[in-house]
Amino acid sequence: MKRLNMQFIAVILVLGLGFFNYCCGDCVWYGQCGYYPGSSDHALNCPYKGKAKPLQDSDVIAKYKSLCPDLYAEFGKNTCCSDAQVNTIASQVALPNMLFQRCPSCFHNFMNIWCYLTCGANQSEFLYVNKTIPVTVNGTAAVGIQSVDYIVSNKSANEMFNSCRNVQSPSTNQPALAMLCGGYGYDKCTPENWLDYMGGTANGQTPFDIWFHISSSAVVINGTSYTPLEFKSFPCNVATSNETEACSCQDCLATCTPVPPPVPKPGRCEIIHLDCYDFAFGLAFIVFFLLFGCYCMCYNIIVQDSLRLEKAGEENDLGCFGRQGLAADRNVRKQQYLTNITESDLGCFERAGAKMEIFLEKQFFNWGYFCARHPFIVTVIAVLVTGALVAGAALLTVTTDPVKLWSAPDSRARLEKDYYDSHFTPFYRTEQLLISQPDNHTVINYKNHNYSSLFDKTFLHELLDLQNAITKIQAEYNNKTIMLQDICFAPLQPENNNCTIMSILNYYQNSHEMIDKVAKDAYGFWVLADYLDHFQSCVLSPFALNDTSLLHTPCMGTFGGPVYPWVALGGYQDKDYSTANAFVITFVVNNHLDPKQLEPAKAWEAKYIEFMKNYTAEHPGVQIAFSAERSIEDEIDRQSQSDIITILCSYLIMFAYITICLGQYTSFSRILVDAKISLGLAGVIIVLLSVGASLGFYSYLGIPSTLIIIEVVPFLVLAVGVDNIFILVQKYQREVLQDGETVEHMIGRVVGKVGPSMLLTSLSESLAFFLGALTQMPAVKVFSLYAAMAVLIDFLLQISIFVSLLTLDAKRQEANRVDVTCCVQPSLGKRQPQKGLLYKFISDHYSHFLMKEWVRPTVMVLFVGWFCACGALTSRLSIGLDQSLAMPKDSYVLNYFHNLSKYLSVGPPVYFVVENGHDYSTYAGQNEICGVSGCPQNSLVQQINTASRSSSATYIAEAVSSWLDDYFSWLVSPPCCRYNNKTGDFCPSTEVNVDCLECPLNHTQRGRPVDDTFYTYLPWFLKDNPGLTCGKGGHAAYGSGVQLYKSSHNETHVGASYFMTYHSVLKTSEDYIAALKNAREISDNITRSLNETGQHYNVFPYSVFYVFYEQYLDIVMNAVLNITYCLAAILIITFLLLGFDIYSAIIVVLTILMILVSIMGLMYLWDIELNALSLVNLIMAIGISVEFCSHIIRAFTISIKPTRKERAKDALSYMGSSVLSGITFTKIAGIIMLAFSKSQLFQVFYFRMYLAIVLFGACHGLIFLPVFLSYIGPPVNKAKVFNNKLTDTVEDTTTNSEQHKPNGNTPHVYENPPAYDTVGSE
């Protein structure tokens, strides 16, 4: 007992004297004296006053020389540290070694500050022991150093910090200092804060407290002056030796060559502070207004003599327009000129045009006459052929996969997606929750820092209960129970089967106990750290296995990966995550290429959605927006089902209108006879047959259909078909059956008159749609093909089946039989031809009003003004598709979209894929990819990281994670790469085995593995799980990102691999499009850099949304090309079928173009974006516009009235009522029903756009076009006038001769169309 007391007294004396004597020798410690109380791995150093001692063990000397080269060069083997201390410092800097090794200058400077502290032979000059404690070593009382003061010069501390501040950690996409600066975080990290954290025992790694004094002058402690340590340091852009390289640009901005500032987004073109489009169209309208105004004034004064300057009958000289006299005299002279036309006055094109007109009328007359004479044969044959085509619909496949719908098989995005999916696993399915409390404004104050109400501990427990309940959801599939565990992505399988759940609850290991855990003072009274301290530590270092708070609990998720705060939190200010207004919980589920393998996941997702709907209904106080991978598809299907009734009602209304309004009711007694109910139904059936035949035809060819076709093509074909039906029937209704003429002959005569017009419109539309199929956009391409065939088949059925049925119906009507019930035959008089009320209104009133001299200029100014205004607005059209429009108004997904846009803090991940072919085993090949020291600035990693520094312009938010860089660090970190020297197998860092040795690096170049050394250890790296001893294991981060394969010589090689980063926040279609465009620019530049060395493979970016947004990169050009193709087709067909009349063809195209521009202008005003849906509607608008324009202009060209005004009236009277009652009223009746659709997509892209198509088409066809033709329509075809004069002469001669024939049968001039082919014959 006395002996122990004496030993204790001796220890106390040593402690007391130690404070006065440490300054007097070269060392302040030597060797290790036990461990910190309560610790088994925090060794304390032994106080020592004396000279430095030489190291003896050769392995320790080699390790010391490697870690502390400057000390070895200055003091040799003499140190103030023992072999054990050298081994301790080697183990304690394992993490900094892995983080800083990529930048030799940083690691060198960092090690200097710890080498001089631990082993410096002159410690006493800058190190002061301020506290020691008694310890027991092997049962013997001793003294251990508990705290020291370390005086470091400003210069050395700042140079060390500056050399390390930009060093990156590739696996985490974060600066390395984010892990080594503790609670200060990277943004607030300074030399003082960094050293303060590294020197404190609170970090869980430092065995005793080190109080740093950073000073430029001597520091006096207890009366003794200490000189600040100043060691040799290297800037990051300077190599530490001939065997090393300067730090790379990624880790050292000073190494980077100046990067040009990002090119600013091009602003809108302006002229005198006006938008160029506004200026151009405004100027065009002003010029038009002035010129047209001058014309109108001259016309009214000189031609119309509105000022009454001439007297009746007075002849004046030629005016400024080369016209004479009053308007009446002018019209008389024109009539006289046309009456006196001779054959020598006819032009070549006029002759050809007349022959074309006669040829078409003859052929259609013959065909119509044939169908009328053989209605049953024609109908049966047509039905059989059509039925055979319709039967092909049994093979119909409908494309619902959005990828196939919006991306062409040979498009770049589609090919890149297929490459990614085939070489790696398809991008994961995600089930996501967005939790917020918008009505709870409670503030949680902790340690003078405010937290939002979401951080209430009780709420976190409730949230964890919800998360755990979701993981326990069970679904049944094929008599098997499916849980999240069965379908989730677990990156560390099979060693770790925990699912990847991106949630801040994973900071607490998904444990209620971890949330409640606290660290108290030594007396167990004061709480020093709790769950909020742990949260602050984890958001600064989410990959920490031992947080920087006093809790010392892990932040890494249970699945083996980090949970980044910008992924799990939303709605925070700057990077103050405590202000987050939303928690984001994401369950990551495996995806598969085989749809059958996805069924279990879909079954579980259905139960998950059901569970969340119930949970949100039961917890109204918390706003939870949720979504599953299948949610959008489910909601679209639900919307389609709900809109079936709306669509059916729309079509039923149109069908009812057709069947009722097709009849012509002249008196109450003839209503049932003059009705066309059966004929109208037949017309509707023909439309449906044409759609079915088109579906069947392409089904035979194996071309799948889409929902767009099923919804849009019937509308289009009905528009075209109804117009032709009304034209045919109303032309028949206005004709009279002549004495001795058969019904068959009259039907042939009717078809001969209107058939060419039907051919003109149908052929124009069909060819236009076929040319529209030249586009690469699948949705537009398939629609164009199906629409073209449907329109063509509809025309063929109308001139065959419908003409045959019209003949039968005409015979029924002529025989006064009741419609539908033909056996009933009331006693009525002969049918009298009637023009109809609408025809009379247009012919007798509307056409005259429209041609008034004050109305015509008004119409021209209004329409041209509107066209110019819309032309200016087209440049402002937005591109894209708001996905929320595809959802029903009551969909839970809309709430998810809203919250996603409101709280989203990070964009989707983007993978830069290096295709198979790159050689990573050579130093030059590594330089083309890597980002560590020695890597050039134009390497893949360097270019992406350079882009991330300008995220607002490039949309790359974070530095790229590089498996190659982490592999280099893993390989040279002693705890990481180890092998069993007996079995040769890999030794994980967690395995304690004396047989595990460091990996021998036989072939290296400047510290990097090359040749076979590179490939030997790569598979080990990719299966090594990160841990506390070695945080660089690549299994979790890169296990699925590097494809390895065996060569023919059984050698391991790297195939395709990817390098991941994140896009910045993307909220609008414009953001997504710009992100795709910029990512491709970066990858294309990388590819060019790689190919400069003679390699021939690509680097491409891949993100899950690229395949959907690629179409928008060139949708404007696609739209222009499609519209151009369609208009060119209409121009050609109109030119040919109107008898080589280029004048009329140009007017038709110009009018259709005005309709399109008007629709696009209204699209801007109605916030309708340009996308595949609206482009389909625009192409459809071209086809429907043909119906509004071509019938009118053909009627104008065949009219032989003397003046343009009279011909415009004639054309409007002849075709206006059919166009108005046919396509216009029919479509409006059906479109109105679409306004009641629950689908926003239908309301926007169908109701609004269809309404615009019909209204603008009707206005331009029935108002603008006649007026336009009255001004500058094509001149009258003199050949037709001449032919008409010959026909009249023949009729008069025939009539006179037949009057003198006894018992002669009077031939009728209706047997054939006028013999235009005799014009000009010799």
Automatic annotation (TrEMBL):
GO terms for biological process: cholesterol homeostasis; cholesterol metabolic process; cholesterol transport; intestinal cholesterol absorption. Keywords: Cholesterol metabolism, Disulfide bond, Glycoprotein, Lipid metabolism, Lipid transport, Membrane, Signal, Steroid metabolism, Sterol metabolism, Transmembrane, Transmembrane helix, Transport. Coiled coil: none annotated. It catalyses: cholesterol(in) = cholesterol(out). Its main location: membrane. It is a multi-pass membrane protein. It is found in: Endomembrane system. The chain crosses the membrane at residues 279-302, 376-398, 644-665, 677-701, 707-729, 750-771, 783-808, 859-879, 1115-1138, 1145-1166, 1172-1193, 1214-1237, 1249-1272. Residues 1292-1306 have a biased composition (Polar residues). One of its GO terms (cellular component) is plasma membrane. One of its GO terms (molecular function) is lipid transporter activity. Residues 643-808 form the SSD domain. It holds the Pfam family NPC1_N. Residues 1-25 form the signal peptide. Residues 1292-1322 are annotated as: Disordered. Belongs to the patched family. This is SSD domain-containing protein.
